[in-house]
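Go through this:
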Amino acid sequence: MNAEATHSPAPWRQGESDELTIIEDAEGNLVAFVDLPGMTAQDRANFALMLAAPKLLEALKACLTWDGRFIADEAVQQARAAIAEAEGR
């Protein structure tokens, strides 16, 4: 993987396009799509995980900025919220 490569700008959001459910980046560009009529429960779970990916990355980065004694409450809350979103809760 190229160390210079970056992902599409966050936040990512869910959108609709005809019979497709899409993930758009902060600028409205297409990141991913799935076919709604054919979605299984596992497909929906995978879609939620993809949608939450930028938030999961930021939460992990926040957890790594700890001072060696404890992880800041804010970082823990950010991580819990990102996990909940990834799990579709």
Remarks:
- The radius of gyration is 15 Å.
- The chain has two helices and three strands.
- Residues 63 and 87 are 19 Å apart (CA to CA).
